[in-house]
Amino acid sequence: MSIRSAHEGDLPEILDLDRKAFPDDPYPYFVLRQYFDGYSDRILVLDDGKHLHGYVLFVTTSDGSVCWVLSLAISTERRGRGLGRRLMLEVMRQSRQERVHEVRLTVEPANTAAIMLYESLGLSAEDGVRRDYFGPGEDRLLMSLKL
Predict the structure, then answer these.
(1) Contacts of 85 (CB under 8 A, 6+ apart)
(2) Which residue of 51, 68, 93, 145 lies most exposed, with the fewest beta carbons within 10 A?
(3) pTM score, two decimals?
(4) Taking Cα atoms as reference points, which of 110, 23, 39 lies closest to residue 73?
(5) Distance from C-alpha of 99 to C-alpha of 141, rounded to nearest angstrom
(6) Predicted local confidence at residue 147, as pLDDT
(7) Widest CA span of the chain, in angstroms?
């Protein structure tokens, strides 16, 4: 399985991955479309040659100092096999290569599997849970790693 930048034709599969990973709050198609149009090189996919099994969406602040991981999704049937780790390691590799100083992300506080993955990669939640981060009742754990 290879990691590559997303192509326009991948958008339906990325949308499907996102809907299955985040059934309560997936990205609308138009948002993924706009991210693709603006940051196609910042959407990496896991491709087995037939299907996509994961994606990560990340952006870098305009001053180049911080990389924000906006979304990471792995197909439900492939979870627990290190695919999320592979995508995150590639984001971190590219960030180091671009001399980014820090990687940040937010995660649902109850998503223990994701939190364990991020902690195993060195990210920490120094600021703890941010209440109402995405609006009322939408708390997030802010995690970061200095590179």
Answers:
(1) 117, 120, 121
(2) 93
(3) 0.93
(4) 23
(5) 25
(6) 94
(7) 41
Q: Could you give the domains of the chain?
A: 2-104 (3.40.630.30)
Q: Are 3 and 86 in contact (CB under 8 A)?
A: yes
Does the pLDDT at position 128 exceed 90? no
The tokens for 80 are 């627990």
The encoded tokens of residue 78 equal 């492939």
Q: For residue range 37-70, what is the model confidence (pLDDT) as tens digits?
A: 999 999 999 999 999 999 999 999 999 999 999 9
Task: Assign 3-class secondary structure to 10-58.
Answer: HHHHHHHHHHHHCCCCCCCHHHHHHHHHHHHHHEEEEECCCCEEEEEEE
